[in-house]
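Batch manifest, entry 17 of 40.
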Amino acid sequence: MQLPEVLDAIRSYGSASTKNTLMKHGAAEPVYGAKVADLKILQKKIKKDVPLALALFDSGVYDARYLAALIADGAQMTEAQLQHWAETSNSQGISEYSVPWVAAEHPEGWELALRWIDSDNELIAGSGWNTLGGIVSMKADEELDLPLIKKLLQRIEKTIHSSPNRVRYVMNGFVIGVGTYVDALHEQAVAVARNIGAVSVDMNGTACKVPLAEEYISAARNRPGGVKKKKTIRC
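Output type: structure tokens
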């Protein structure tokens, strides 16, 4: 499929009610209002197509950017392309999810994310923390830099409550990710979760809530069958 055809298809799936919901959750115009289920129909038709993904992302359309991350192969993208996605994301749904989905697959994703978390741009920092969280949920513990992750947990414990709004949200998510998926640092993550307690985040008047990290970790670890590393963080 070519870019105009895909954009027309996305537009045909759009509805005012879905667009309104997306906007309430931080999506920035242009937004067509396509449901994720409909975007996944297109994903199945297209499969993997990095050039098309890049073109979709550069269209600036929120729904197209979401689809771009579904059909991209992060391992085949360049660092410059990933950096471009992080720098030009203009809504939390793309910066906190779409960008990390692909960045976590790249061989240099960890290093990119470490640079992003130091950004003064709230959206870029969000991409960084969720990329790190995605990587710890996918890679085996022996492949992770455990001493550095321990330092990141300590950093969060000291700074989360004074960090920008959405950065607080993704920092909390990183603690949950480590506590859930990294056996070697589970106890430390739980201790950090207990110390930071409830995290206050402005959720734009939606019904969404910030999970209590300690409770979330416990619930995840006690699921039937236990916890297994993920193959992908796309959803």
